[in-house]
TrEMBL record:
Sequence ranges assigned to domain Enoyl reductase (ER) in this UniProt record: 20-331
One MF term in the entry's GO annotations: oxidoreductase activity, acting on the CH-CH group of donors, NAD or NADP as acceptor
SUPFAM superfamilies: GroES-like, NAD(P)-binding Rossmann-fold domains
A Pfam family it matches: ADH_zinc_N
PANTHER family: PROSTAGLANDIN REDUCTASE (PTHR43205), PROSTAGLANDIN REDUCTASE 1 (PTHR43205:SF7)
Alphabetically ordered keywords of this record: Oxidoreductase
Protein name: NADP-dependent oxidoreductase
Tagged with keyword Methyltransferase: no
Matching CDD domains: PGDH (cd05288)
Length: 334
């Protein structure tokens, strides 16, 4: 009897906020392996803000997800059957199988990972995966922080932002996070070691940011956009750097926030650079080496929000876009 594979397909292209009805849960039979192929049982699925953009049509840095096809996404899993001499049963692999319980591959694009108590499988989708690499590449390559400078990061308790702040601290910077709610700000300061955190939901964003950055801002790692970006622009120092990673506050808006003070970029001779982490693969070995050492030694801490079962993926994804998750949002598949 064939193994059953539950999958989540993109059913509709959202107009504004994503709805659970924009997805469809189906069950299919896993195909028999051909020579050179492996069957991977996915253990965890990564849910990330970039997926919202893939649901739209139109020009972007990557192709849109197609209707009635499996939603895109990173996965970590274990090989349960192999007809490829380069991969053995029970090896753990990082892949890009999307929102489904099983995936078949000819081995291209699969990355073997070493799973241990210090480095569990889920970490390869977060702090040691795409989010961690994004944090390292954006901060170290574009932000280029110097000891004593002030680094500010939005979505500071999230999978990317939390690593950015801890890396900046490790390099001797004064680090200020921006997050939504007292619990997230307390976590960022008390557990992750940030110097301060501004709660943008407290209603005093401009005043609190000014108080937390008395010497201005040298590096701003941008994850959010909107009014937070606007507040930061007024605090930038001359020759500040902005690694532009995302605009999560704007992804579901039909009328994006109009930033009023873009002139600050010219006045302060600011370097603003958007980036896609996959275009910087030459930096990955250095990034993974540093991140692995910091995680294994406990100098970089991380937190995960884990939904259970493939059926929970749409609800968990929408919650992540609304900031309901704490740290990296995952779905446990097995």
């Amino acid at each position: 009897m064939a193994t059953k594979n539950k999958q989540v397909l993109l059913a509709n292209r959202p107009q504004g906020w994503v709805q659970e009805s924009d997805f469809q849960l189906v069950e299919t039979d896993v195909a028999a392996l051909r020579d050179g192929e492996v069957l991977v049982k996915n253990l965890y699925l990564s849910l990330d803000p970039y997926m919202r953009g893939r649901m739209n049509e139109g020009k972007s840095y990557a192709a849109s997800s197609k209707l009635q096809e499996v939603m895109v996404g990173g996965t970590v899993g274990v090989i349960v059957e192999s007809k490829n001499p380069n991969f053995q049963v029970d090896e753990h692999v990082l892949g890009y199988f999307g929102w489904q319980e099983y995936g078949i591959s000819d081995g291209k694009g699969l990355q073997k990972v070493s799973v241990s108590q210090q480095l569990p499988a889920s970490a390869y989708l977060g702090v040691l995966g795409m989010p961690g690499l994004t944090a390292w590449v954006g901060l170290m390559s574009i932000g280029q922080p110097k000891a004593g400078e002030t680094v500010v990061v939005s979505a500071a308790s999230g999978a990317v932002g939390s690593v950015v702040g801890q890396l900046a601290k490790a390099h001797g910077c004064h680090v200020v996070g921006i997050a939504g709610g007292k619990a997230k700000c307390d976590y960022v300061v008390n557990e992750l070691g940030f110097d301060a955190c501004v709660d943008y939901k407290a209603g005093k964003l401009v005043e609190d940011l000014a108080a937390a950055t008395p010497d201005g801002i040298d590096v701003y790692f941008e994850n959010v956009g909107g009014e937070i970006l606007e507040a930061v622009l007024d605090r930038l120092n001359a020759h500040a750097r902005i690694p532009l990673c995302g605009f999560v506050s704007q992804y579901n808006e039909t009328t994006p926030h109009a930033v009023r003070n873009f002139g600050a970029l010219l006045i302060n001779r600011v370097k603003l650079q958007g980036f896609i982490v996959g275009e910087h693969a030459e930096l990955f070995p250095q990034a993974i080496k540093e991140l692995s050492e910091l995680v294994a030694s406990g100098k970089i801490k991380y937190r995960e929000t884990v939904a259970e079962g493939i059926e929970s993926s749409p609800k968990a994804f929408i919650g992540m876009l609304k900031g309901e998750n704490f740290g990296k949002q995952l779905v446990k598949l097995a």
